[in-house]
Design goal:
By secondary structure, the chain is of the alpha/beta class. The chain contains 3 helices and 11 strands; from the N terminus they run βαββββαββββββα. It has helices spanning about 25-30, 70-85, 180-195, and strands at about 1-10, 30-40, 50, 55-60, 65-70, 90, 100-115, 125, 130-135, 135-155, 165-170.
């Protein structure tokens, strides 16, 4: 069973249950950080981990690329490595039989949708050409980007023959942040602050 915690990066505010949605201005300053973990797992049982350095996975409906490279990917993965090392784990290459696998990827979604409202007589818009009130079509566009972190037990597989997911973190929405690059790098530290379960 995964347990969940949500904090806003840079704030000490815990968001749970029926708490109100964070103020939009705060979300522009700080990213929401959510973490889940398997409470049946003893994270002290693991010693080594691996992580693709300088590379982030990418899932997007606006590009066919599947990898994010460059300084952003390097800064994110180096920040993850620094935190894992500080928790007492040893980084090894994937061919050295690590206990844990750390995966980081971006999910970027851009959507366009429309709504149609049919105003009653006396409201809406009048068309002199058609001579009656016609429906109003509103077009909206949304864009969101979330950085997802996953930690898997490379010694245990599920009944679907997949490595067992034991921890995950969500950082977002990067698209609405005034400084998505720096804030998401900073949020990696917050991910580990609220994941005290991870450590030797």
């Amino acid at each position: 069973m995964l347990r969940s915690f949500i904090l806003m990066s840079g704030l000490g505010l815990l968001l749970a249950g029926c708490q109100p949605v964070p103020d939009a201005e705060e979300l522009n300053k700080n990213l929401v950080v959510e973490t889940d973990y398997d409470d049946k797992v003893n994270f002290r049982d693991f010693t080594t981990y691996t992580l693709p350095l300088d590379t982030l996975g990418l899932i997007s409906n606006t590009t066919k690329d599947t990898l994010q490279l460059g300084s952003y990917a390097r800064d994110i993965t180096q920040k993850i490595k620094a935190n894992m090392d500080a928790r007492g784990y040893t980084y090894v290459n994937k061919n050295q039989n690590p206990d844990l696998g750390f995966v980081a990827f971006l999910v970027s979604d851009f959507s366009v949708y429309q709504t149609i409202s049919y105003p009653s007589y006396g409201g809406g818009y009048y068309s002199s050409y058609y001579g009656y009130y016609y429906p109003r079509v509103n077009t909206y566009a949304t864009s969101s980007t979330v950085l997802i972190l996953q930690l898997v037990d490379l010694n245990t597989k599920t009944s679907q023959n997949q490595f067992k997911l034991i921890w995950r973190g969500f950082i977002g929405d990067l698209s609405s942040s005034a400084d998505p690059y720096q804030k998401s790098v900073e949020a990696i530290d917050q991910v580990f602050v609220q994941s005290t379960i991870i450590g030797k």
